[in-house]
Structures are given as structure tokens and as C-alpha cells.
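A.,

Following up on our hallway conversation. C-alpha cells first:
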């Protein structure tokens, strides 16, 4: 997902999911333990779902 976002010119911050605090925060936000999790605005996209990422970017007028 990092390369996809970079190609689209989207800035992002990456969190290490191996860190228990980060993993717990992601779980609280999404209810999922799958990765990657891409948060855009208030929407969380779980997995490598480029269509959902594109839709979320459109929703925030990117």
C-alpha cells in the first residue's frame, strides 16, 4: 500500500503493527486484526483494497 499511495502522491505516516500499542489502537479503530490498515479521514480500509482507498480519497476531495 505504501508504494500505491506514493505513486498517487499521497503523504502518509506508517505505524509498526508489531508494536503492541499500535496493534491495539488499530484493532480498536477497525475491529480487525488484518493488515495493512489504511486510515483516510475517518475511514479505515483493511487489506490491499485500492478501490476502497481511491473512494476514501475522493470522499476527502483528494
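Then the amino acids I'd put at each of the 62 positions:
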Amino acid at each position: 500500500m505504501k508504494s500505491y499511495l506514493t505513486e498517487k502522491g499521497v503523504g502518509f505516516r506508517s505505524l509498526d503493527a508489531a508494536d503492541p500499542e499500535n496493534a491495539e489502537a488499530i484493532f480498536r479503530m477497525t475491529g480487525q486484526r488484518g493488515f495493512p490498515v489504511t486510515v483516510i479521514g475517518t475511514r479505515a480500509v483493511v487489506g490491499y483494497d485500492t478501490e476502497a482507498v481511491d473512494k476514501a480519497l475522493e470522499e476527502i476531495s483528494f
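The first helix runs from residue 2 to 7. Curious whether your intuition agrees with the design.

B.
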